[in-house]
Amino acid sequence: MISAVIAVLVAALVYALCIAVGLPSIVGIVAAVLVLLGGIPTGAYGRRGV
């Protein structure tokens, strides 16, 4: 549960950073989604969701 909260916070930070640099909004959204997909443990085979 804590890792999901941290992933959401990091995704928001990545989005804000992309907007601050001057990238288009869609790039920030895609980057945030990729961070969420990589940061939240899925429980799939081979991954350890502690």
How would you describe this structure to a colleague?
This protein is mostly helical. It has a domain at 10-39. Helices cover 70% and strands 0% of the residues. The chain has two helices and no strands. The chain has helices at residues 2-21, 25-39. Helix 1 runs antiparallel to helix 2 (25-39). The longest helix is centred in the N-terminal third of the chain and has 20 residues, at 2-21. The chain is elongated and about 30 Å long. It starts with a helix and ends in an 11-residue tail after the last helix. The mean pLDDT is 83.
List the helices and strands and how they pair.
Layout: H1 2-21, H2 25-39
Helix pairs in contact: 1-2
Task: Describe the structure concisely.
This protein is mainly α and 50 residues long.
Strand content: under 5%
Count of DSSP helices?
A: 2
Structural class: mainly alpha
Mean pLDDT: 83
Distance between the termini: 9 Å
Helix share bin: over 70%
Shape annotation:
elongated
Largest sheet: none
Features:
50 residues, mainly alpha, 70% helix, elongated
